Amino acid sequence: MIIATWNINSVKARLPLLLDWLDQAKPDVVCLQEIKCQTPDFPRLELEALGWHCVVQGQKSYNGVALLSREPATDVITALPGDPSDEQARYVQATVSGLRIGCLYLPNGNPVGTEKYPYKLAWMDRLVTHAEQLLRAETPFVLAGDYNICPTDDDVYDPVAWREDALCRPESRAQFRRLLNLGLTEAFRLFHPDEPHRYSFWDYQAGRWPRDQGLRIDHFLLSPQASDRATACDIDKTPRGWEKASDHTPVWCEISG
DNA sequence: ATGGTTGTTCCACAA
């Protein structure tokens, strides 16, 4: 079973590229972030006609997440628990073929010094609490998405320039490590322990893509039972080079059984 | 020090 995560930066602007990539990569589950549309405006009919089941949590203008699956999705959750007043569409979760899959779009947190940064850290508090709850069930799960966190300096093209950014600050990285310390495994590093400078995002500005100056911020965190079954994880750079590309490229993980 | 894009919406903001 191939699970992919892709921040597509508007599902409407990116639908042709999404359909091309689904056709050639043939994933079984796709976690999408930044669909940037309200739920009724999601291209559900087009995707269902191609055999996809869709779980969608949209929002006007910003954010928005969706989970596509070849097999039906059950036990759907459309918000991260822990703050009923949070109206930002950043989390959906469903069970597909016995595997529980969370699709998340973690807050960016910039500029640090505004309310955006504490919102990010508080959102990660809630994610830690939610992961603890999932672990108690002792069933395999995957938390996939745009974490807006560079876990280490190896994941940044210029660590000094990015040191104070919300994606790299020590408090952000400490929150990410709390997830690992629960017993979750970061899938890309499991299979690529000695490959610094592998990125999943390249800014549109300043020639970052042609110079390969990127960040690795799209991740898979695996529960112990999911980690046991993981067979591969990699970044598919190809779609970032296409015309009208998203600034993120897909990351995928294979889970056996 | 500067660089200088994209999508959505409205006359900026978020990334």
Description:
With 257 residues, the chain is an alpha+beta fold. The protein has one domain (2-255): Deoxyribonuclease I, Chain A (4-Layer Sandwich), CATH 3.60.10.10. It has six helices and twelve strands. The protein has helices spanning 11-25, 44-49, 116-136, 170-181, 187-191, 224-229; strands spanning 2-7, 29-33, 53-57, 65-69, 74-77, 91-96, 99-105, 141-146, 185-186, 218-222, 230-235, 251-255. The strands form two sheets. The chain has a six-stranded mixed beta sheet with strand order 3-4-2-1-12-11. Strand 6 and strand 7 (99-105) form a beta hairpin. Helix 3 runs parallel beside helix 4 (170-181). The longest helix is centred in the middle third of the chain and has 21 residues, at 116-136. The radius of gyration is 17 Å and the shape is globular. It starts with a strand and ends with a strand. 42% of the residues are buried. The mean pLDDT is 98. The chain binds one DNA strand of 15 nucleotides through residues 9-10, 12-13, 34, 36-37, 60-62, 108, 110, 148, 203-207, 244, 246-247.
